[in-house]
Amino acid sequence: MQIYLPIAELPVNVFLILGMGIAVGFISGMFGVGGGFLMTPLLIFVGIPPAVSVVTVTAHMAASSASGAIAYWRKGTIDFGLAGVLLLGGMVGTGLGVWVFTILRRFGQLELAIGISYVLLLGIIGSLMIGESVRAILRSRRKTAQPPRLAAKPWWFAELPLRMHFRRSNLDVSALPVLAIGGAIGFLGAVMGISGGFMLVPALIYLLRVPTGVVLGTSLVLTLATMLAAVLMHALSSLSLDVVLALILMVGGVMGAQFGARAGQAMRGEQLRLLLGLLVLAVGLRFLVDLALPPEEMFTVLQTERVR
Questions:
Q1: Which structural domain, as residue segments, surrounds residue 157?
Q2: Burial class, 65, CB count within 10 angstroms (exposed 0-12 / middle 13-18 / buried 19+)
Q3: Which positions, given as ranges, span the membrane (predicted)?
Q4: Structurally, how many domains does the chain consist of?
């Protein structure tokens, strides 16, 4: 069954797009990540223009994170103070990312920039996750104890100014690294169409020493706000939001997440991290192959508007 996407300007199979939404939703529910780092490449692989893929996935991520944020809010596991500082940096990063996105698209370099960014980001993160997971599995087989965590106080920016106390996280730290982390996540979300949860959660746990029970809900609040901001900015600046495509992906994502959450509960943490690391690395390698292969058309003609 074919349906025409008005903004992407091409027909697609509804069941293919719905199946992609279900598959990514399943992975999101299983691993506890947003799934944008998978959905955006998949859309590009099936022929959706990179600009439309990035913007549409931001809308999909905003909708999927809203229900999760509400659930964590009801449980009282959100540090709104920390989320507010992260959000302040995230809004600045999102605005900068939309500006860079528009410039790259204007000069015809958007697809190359997205491909290189995915290769570097997913390659590094996937390799680190696989290494950590393999070590954890080997330790469990040898029945050796987990190495003790570092002190709760993050020493590497302990002397920075603008110190703040976040009561829910029981954290006393400078606002500067919090702003920097939020800005980086917002920037990457706007340029690459990813929610950033698979980077934000480890950053909050290992860099800021935020308790794990508070991290997920706080991360979802930032994801929701930055993705909504990115959708609005993109809709006004690049006009690349395909509502029809976004709705199909949302339906599939909600369906798949329910089954993924149940599957994830049956697996051990280090096994889940290993599988996620392999998945992340595979997507990065797929982008690397696309960048290495010569294009079908060596030259293209771009139409530009005449400046009056």
A1: 2-290
A2: buried
A3: 12-31, 37-59, 80-104, 116-138, 178-207, 214-237, 243-260, 272-289
A4: 1
State the sign of the Cα–Cα–Cα–Cα dihedral 220, 223, 226, 231: negative
Q: Is residue 306 part of a domain?
A: no
3-state SS record for 26-46: HHHHHHCCCCHHHHHHHHHHC
The position carrying tokens 């920037």 is 187
Cα–Cα distance for residue pair 23/21, rounded to 1 Å: 6
Distance CA(36)–CA(278), nearest Å, equals: 16
Listed in sequence order, the residues at least 6 apart from 56 whose beta carbon sits closer than 8 Å to its beta carbon are 43, 48, 193, 240, 241, 242, 245, 246, 249
The per-residue b/e assignment along 97-108, b for 16 or more CB within 10 angstroms, e otherwise, is bbeebbebbeee
Residue 196 resides in a domain: yes
Q: Which string of DSSP letters, residue by residue, matches 135-168?
A: HHHHHHHHTPPPPPPPPSS-GGGTT-SSEEEETT
- Measure the CA–CA gap between 204 and 61, rounded to whole angstroms: 20
Tell me if 126 sits within 8 A of 280, measured CB to CB.
yes
Question: What is the enclosing helix (H) or strand (E) of 234?
Answer: helix 212-237
Please give the model's pTM, rounded to 2 decimal places.
0.66
In a domain, 89, yes or no: yes
168 in Cβ contact with 154 (< 8 Å): no
Is 153 or 185 the better-scoring residue by pLDDT?
185
Residue 192 in domain: yes
Both structure tokens of 3: 């349906």
Give the whole-angstrom CA distance, residue 184 versus residue 47: 28
CA dist 273 and 280 (Å) reads 10
In this prediction, residues 197-219 reach a mean pLDDT of 77
pLDDT tens readout for residues 47-104: 888 878 878 887 777 776 776 677 778 878 788 888 899 989 988 988 898 888 888 8
User: Quick one: which of 18, 191, 72 has its CA closest to 120?
Assistant: 191
Q: Which residue type occupies 82?
A: L
